[in-house]
Amino acid sequence: MRKPKADLANERIPKLILQLGLPATVAMLVNALYNLVDTIFLGRWVGSEAIAALTVAMPLQNLMTGIGLLTGVGAASMISRSLGENRVDRADLIAGNAFLSVGILGTALAVIGLLFMDPILRLFGASTSILPYAREYMRYIFIGWIYVPMVMSANNIVRSEGDAKTSMKAMLIGTGLNLVLDPIMIYLLDMGIRGAAIATIFSQFCAFLYLLNYFLRGKSMVKISLEYMKLKWYIMWEMYAIGMSSFARQLAASGVGIIMNQALVVYGGDIALAAFGIMFRVHMFIFMPLFGVVQAMQPILGFNYGARNFKRVKESILYSTIIVSAAATLGTMLILFFPQILAGIFTKEATLIQEGSRALRVASIFIPIVGIQIISSVVFQALGKAGPALFLALFRQIILTIPMVLILPRFFGLTGVWMVYPCSDIIAVAVSAYMLLREIKVLEKELSPVVV
Description:
By secondary structure, the protein is mainly alpha-helical. The chain is built from 15 helices and no strands.
């Protein structure tokens, strides 16, 4: 019988979170570091226009990420529960369907992006001065688009069987290679923003080859072969239903990004757009460790839920929440105490430093409690409860953020745009906490001794 790489059924929960979360967190931090360094290189060697172009491209990249999460998160939840139920053949079939579907969706969206690039970029806030930079960047991203969701889906599947180290290695290959190639292609070869795009896609291609080799050489517990790459609609339906909350969150982020970019251009121009890019990169670096912890929590939750061990499910939620909240608090303190230093890392332009630091101060106030919302959404995904997970994904982005972007700037100008984040955070966290506590009570009622 094939068994998970980590002892998801018996090992102490704190040790499991450390065992699975540390590799994921390291990989996430390296990935966030790449995004920081990429923006720093472009900001200092190309200019604020390049940072603004990356900001315009952000909604498209969110969509790219969403495709990977749609299949990867759904497949990971189903695979973890299937392994907990000792249904290994079903886990293989789920993985095969995930790879086939992400390939079809990724290719289709890449073709659409290349055919309608300029209208899409204008819709996403590209001004006349920013459009050439955004076009040059996204042209190469679209060409190699398919490898990004492929890597994301494969990484989720690897983590679902408790193998966090292989997932970490794949991410380190992609991000590490990117860190090396960026200065070479942007600066030494004088390729500018085009060099950044080529470095990104080539690095993801190498990460994909590593994961493909891992599966084809039989190192994984889940088997990948043409035998299992036959679309089964009952699997696709459940996989998409579970992954839909993550996809909806990314799709909503793209929609919010469009409206946010438009508001930034209206109330602050291209400098505000670049300031938002700086704020987003710093926030990403703070949030990545949190995502590393919840990635560790997901297979523990899914496996033990499948094994009907609800006590360990509750412990996983408790310990993950404590760790995530502590990490978020430390990150927020760093932002609030040193905003100008952080903004100054990306650019030498005084105006951009001033606006970037102001954005960081205003938008980061409630980050310490945001982890509760992240935990809540992943809990429902891991338990296979697609409805609540989808609601939490859409509540902050659609119901709260979009109306606030349309209303607050009318009263507070550009500051109102930055205020959207703390205002939506506090309400979303309150609703998420209520739903999470209610779910824990449901689990407590179902708690029964594990028969050995």
